[in-house]
Design a protein that fits this description.
The protein is mainly alpha-helical and about 475 residues long. It has helices at about 5-15, 20-35, 40-60, 70-75, 95-110, 110-120, 130-150, 160-165, 170-180, 185-195, 205-215, 225-230, 240-250, 255-260, 265-285, 290-310, 315-350, 365-380, 390-415, 425-440, 445-465, and strands at about 80, 90-95. Among the domains are: about 1-60, no CATH class; about 60-180, no CATH class; about 340-465, no CATH class. The radius of gyration is 29 Å and the shape is elongated. The relative contact order is 0.05.
């Protein structure tokens, strides 16, 4: 790449949110580990690391007084969920942070916050990273103490005081925020101990993670889901976190697994699969098929992993939840799969010339959307068995292959004898058929059909001149 292109790439990457930058870094590092697209991955990683180093250098300077809340809540960043997304154990709504901060400044610890603001304002402009870190620790300890005073035992009826913090969802998060802030040091230690990437979650990595999590402060029922969330974020296949629960239980029986504190790992996986299924359903409804293959693979692997590595009972809560997820996926996929043959027939239908109006055209956008749907059906074939769509997917794909192959041949014949008034429409039908052939039969077959179409048009033109 030229220097200008690299600068443009860096500018684009710098504009991404920190979470997106971190996600990109993880994905390209995984690509390097797999030996895929090494040149691209190396280039992008180099630029991302330069941006990260610049960000770290910028953060060495003292944050503005109004950024005191960011300093307080920075330890919560791995557990935050954006607005609108359903949360599970081990997660906190980002939208709850602002009302909690307002409560701390108003009722929880106003004097402490004023003192911290004054201290932060007096810090020198550079070389104060250690002082800022020490201030953050004191700030987080003071906030945790204020939250515990409100949410802990004793003190009589606290419902009115809690109501001043915010609605029930914020109060729910308040307990989690206080718990995480109180064990900030333990989370930092765990982060340092955990392997950076967890690709194949086998025995060696299971042992390393078990050792990293062996911190008393993180083994409580409230904090263990947060610790497991740290692990899940480093996994290439997040569903494999259930192996940790199976190891602790020394059994794959769901009753024994559920009896251990680590049984919450199964709850986490089921929730995340349910959210992934909901995202898949939404993407399909909006016609966004670019991420469908990755989502389908993640769902397929997760469902298969739960079904094969855990002895789940059909009538148990976990078994029923998994069955509901499979049904949800099946319904979303089946309705879309069933619609594909009709869209293909509408484009390739052999209409009599008298039924084709002058100036008739085929919408190229509709052709591309239909090609994407055919590719979607092809993708579903790879994951059909675990997602309960095996029969409909195989039947639809076979019907599409037969219909497109027959229609392509018929349209070629029609193109040879087409009247000049409908020739453009026939040509567009043939081009659409060739586009569908590329998806169903591959580029070589589509190229062969393309040459046949050229011969058909050439033959038609020669016939016209001879007449």
């Amino acid at each position: 790449m030229s220097q200008t292109s690299i600068e443009r790439l860096r500018e684009y990457l710098a504009q991404l949110p920190p979470q997106s930058q971190a996600l990109l870094m993880r994905e390209f590092e995984r690509a390097l580990e797999r030996g895929q697209e090494t040149a691209v991955a190396t280039l992008v990683l180099e630029q991302l690391r330069k941006i990260a180093r610049k960000t770290e250098a910028d953060e060495a300077a003292p944050p503005r007084v109004e950024d005191l809340s960011r300093l307080l809540f920075q330890v919560l960043e791995p557990f935050l969920v954006e607005a609108g997304a359903p949360i599970r154990v081990g997660q906190i709504r980002r939208s709850s942070l602002h009302p909690i901060w307002q409560w701390l400044a108003r009722d929880g610890a106003p004097d402490k916050l004023a003192e911290f603001e004054a201290t932060l304002a007096r810090l020198p402009a550079t070389g104060n990273a250690g002082q800022v870190e020490a201030l953050a620790q004191k700030l987080q300890a003071a906030a945790a103490a204020a939250i515990f005073t409100l949410t802990g035992p004793g003190g009589g009826d606290k419902s009115r005081a809690l109501a001043r913090v915010g609605p029930p969802s914020v109060i729910e998060d308040l307990y989690s925020v206080g718990a995480v802030l109180a064990v900030r040091d333990a989370i930092a230690v765990c982060n340092e101990r955990l392997p950076r990437f967890l690709r194949a979650f086998g025995d060696a990595q299971l042992a390393a993670v078990t050792t990293a999590l062996n911190i008393p402060a993180l083994q409580t029922p409230q904090m263990l889901p947060f610790a497991l969330s740290l692990v899940v974020q480093r996994m290439s296949a997040p569903w494999q976190i259930i192996r940790l629960a199976i190891k602790i239980a020394a059994s794959d029986d769901e009753i024994r697994v559920a009896a251990t504190p680590y049984g919450v790992a199964v709850t986490i996986v089921l929730h995340d699969l349910s959210c992934l299924a909901a995202n898949l359903r939404m993407d399909i409804k909006r016609g966004r098929f670019d991420a469908v293959a990755d989502n389908l693979k993640a769902l397929h692997d997760g469902v298969r992993g739960l079904r094969t590595e855990l002895d789940l009972r059909i009538d148990s809560p976990w078994g029923k939840q998994l069955a509901a997820i499979r049904a949800d996926i099946s319904n979303a996929l089946q309705s879309e799969i069933d619609s594909v043959p009709g869209r293909v027939r509408r484009i390739l239908r052999q209409r009599a010339e008298k039924d084709i109006p002058p100036g008739a055209r085929i919408d190229s956008t509709e052709v591309e959307e239909t090609a994407a749907l055919i590719d979607f059906v092809a993708t579903c074939r790879n994951f059909a068995s675990e997602l309960a769509i095996n029969e409909v997917t195989l039947r639809t794909y076979s019907d599409l292959q037969q219909y497109v192959e027959r229609s392509t041949e018929t349209l070629m014949q029609s193109l040879r004898v087409a009247d000049h008034k409908v020739r453009t429409y026939r040509q567009q039908q043939v081009q659409a058929a060739i586009r569908f052939c590329a998806v169903l039969f591959g580029d070589d077959y589509a190229s062969l059909m393309g040459r046949a179409a050229e011969n058909a048009q050439t033959g038609e033109r020669k016939s016209t001149r001879a007449g």
